[in-house]
Amino acid sequence: MKQEDIQTVLETLTKQTEPISRSSLQILSGILETEDFNNAVSYLEKQGKIVLLSRKRVATPKVAGYVTAEIIRQARGFSFAKPIDEEDMDDIFVHASVSKGSMPGDVVLLKNIISDEKGLSGDVDKILTKGARVITGTIERELGQAYIMPDSSFSYRLRIVKGGELKSKNGDKVKASIYYEPWEDRIYARVIRIYGSASSAKICADAIIDANGIPSKFTVAVKHEAAMKSAEPITDEEIAKRLDLRNEPIFTIDGADAKDLDDAVSVKKLDNGWELGVHIADVSHYVTEGSKIDEAAMDRGTSVYFADRVIPMLPVELSNGCCSLNAGQKKLTFSAIMKLDENADLVDYRFAKSVIESKVRGVYSEVNKILDGTADESLKEKYAPVYESLFEAQKLANILKAKAKQRGELEIESTELKFVLDEGGVCIDVSTRERGEAEELIEQFMIMANQAAALYAKSVDIPFVYRVHEAPDPERLESLANLAAVCGFETRRLKEGVRQTDLAALINKAKETKYSTLISTQVLRTMAKARYDYRPLGHFGLSLADYCHFTSPIRRYPDTSIHRILSDLVSGVPVDKIKEKYADFAKESSKMSSEREIRAMRAERETEKCYAAEYMTFHIGEVHNGVVSGVTNKGIFVTIENGIEGFVNLLDVDNAFFEFNGTTTITDRRSGVSYCIGDVVTIQVLAASVASATIDFKIVRS
After folding, report:
1. What are φ and ψ of residue 495, in 5° steps?
2. What residues are paired with 265 via a beta bridge?
3. For residue 125, which phi and psi values (nearest 5 degrees)?
4. How many Å apart are CA 614 and CA 617, to the nearest integer?
5. How are beta strands 251-254 and 243-244 bridged, if at all?
6. Which of 163, 176, 425, 669 is the most buried (most CB within 10 A)?
7. What is the pLDDT of residue 513?
8. What is the pLDDT of residue 559?
9. What is the DSSP letter of 320?
10. From CA 101, how far away is CA 74, in angstroms rounded?
11. Of 492-496, 542-546, 608-612, where does the model show the most confidence?
């Protein structure tokens, strides 16, 4: 089957505004061989890209009134399907009688789409692709019968087929295969793996990793290849081909526990500005195109970070070994050397393969003490080789931060949690992560290098992987404007064509009120998700026309991808050859990297909830002060001092009848008591479940 035939048929049919005959489509497509044409149509029909109609007519699903969707959740008697190619379309209700046995994860073709006051509904025409038909969940037993309560997708427990529970115990976290029995109209489960007790966040993390399809082990072939690459010496011949920066005052700054140090910096004061060097581990030197390591890295897409472990994109022989920019060791790097004027405007840049020797292994907490003047003599001695550079870096970073604020870069509030585990992997402390001046300094320098790399690629028009963040959708902006109005903020500019400075102004206004977290969160939800694309579509959140991810090739595949492309460019490969070589690669890397990033973020978020719940199981009955962080028609979410959020179910309050105003407040009609986002309340911890990742509070006083 020819890929170009498939693309031609699809592009031709997409241009049609009504169904056409197969013969007309073949003529318009210009495909002479009928067998080739039929193969392309058959493939696209199986993918749900083409619908075959009566009288040998064909159309795209949209023209035919069909929708390709994925079943995302299922309750008793009905399911919901999420449209795949229609981003603005709401989820579609599917009654069990017209579901054709489809289950969560299945890709289906829906017909008879109806819109009424309850929303969209439709019927399953066919199942295009069956999902994994595998779930994770917790074992429950009742009257001798074993069930599994799924972690997601299903809102009810599934019966385990007789003899299919293995040796699982009540309360175990398990993995199970599921299947539909049409003559009973019932879904059954069969346990295929037992993780352990669902009361352990570590065990639940194992299940979450598995459920999200994140590979946690490298194959023997990949590990062997990594060991061989790591053992390669840096020869004099290799150094001779590179820009030698070993005598420069280059340093790294990372967390105290970091082992994969992939970026180093250098800052020099010039007569009319600064020279900023950002030196990144030359991962593309070791991870070559088509190698076993490269295939594994692209499949993983990113390193994934959990409280008790890191699942790396690259084997540790590379990530913590030859690619890690350890102080006092010569390392191969890819350097972005930028000149900035007194206003920190980028006036020149160049990229070069280099070799460095970091002078200091910097730690954020230590550098913060250097910069704020609280460092003791031992710290000053450690940082002596780069002491002056640190203060020049501080001056430059401060100007860059001011410029970012001026151009409208959005400062979204972050409540990232930090978990402390004991030797057994149990969560014993939780706090919110703090960001100091050193962290912001490195962030500004990485943004500058990423911007320069994108400018470089765009200037010569080569295939590339850009980090893009598009402008907010008008409908979401309208929702934000409605919420802002309820909170008493000016909304005149919150409409299509909104500027970054308008949203930044709203966030800054909200910081002075109890609605700070609410507005910040809603602005984030209003914007499109950042992703990777082969087109330079700009980054709305950073207010930059050109942006990419160049600075973390150890842990992100898009960075590795553009290192490979830029390596050819700086080595003198002609632009036309680069276009021919990397056009398809840039598209594929963008798509895969975006998908893998979403997968990793979902798994990290789900695991954090389990660890937060585990910590709170040791604090049942305690009383804490908190802030109302969310309101629903059933109750309120409250965030306590350590950053953990729990839910207060107001439907259980005796002699009360609470009504939700749809935005920020829920009020008891009988007593007049109300709770609004931003209110300070005192709660008591009622319960916490690691298995379901939930925490329940009750109001003590407000």
Report:
1. -150, 180
2. 251, 278
3. -80, -45
4. 5
5. unpaired
6. 176
7. 86
8. 98
9. I
10. 11
11. 608-612
Task: Give me the long-range contacts of 2-7 (CB less than 8 A, separation at least 24).
Answer: 2/36, 2/40, 5/29, 5/31, 5/36, 5/37, 5/39, 5/40, 6/40, 6/43, 6/44
Do 642 and 431 touch, CB atoms closer than 8 A? yes
Q: At what angle do helices 500-510 and 516-526 cross, to 10 degrees?
A: 160
Determine the residue type at 422: D
Could you tell me the two tokens for 485?
A: 């109005």
E-assigned strands of 358-464?
360-363, 417-421, 427-432
Q: pLDDT-based confidence at 414, cuts 50/70/90?
A: low
Distance CA 623, CA 54 (A): 67
Residue 445 clears pLDDT 70, i.e. is over it: yes
Q: Say what the pLDDT of residue 483 is.
A: 86
The dihedral built from the CA positions of residue 33, 35, 38 and 44, taken in this order, carries a sign that is: negative
Give me 374's structure tokens. 């609280």
Q: Are 334 and 569 in contact (CB under 8 A)?
A: no
CA distance 139 to 257: 37
Question: What span, in angstroms and rounded, lies between the C-alpha atoms of 28 and 161?
Answer: 53
Which tokens in the block code for residue 625?
């002060």
CB atoms within 10 A of CB 570: 13
Beta bridge partners of 280: 263, 334
Q: How many other CB atoms are found less than 10 A from the CB of residue 293?
A: 25
* Longest Cα separation, the chain: 86
pTM of the model: 0.89
Nearest-CA neighbor of 676 among 637, 628, 624, 639?
Answer: 628
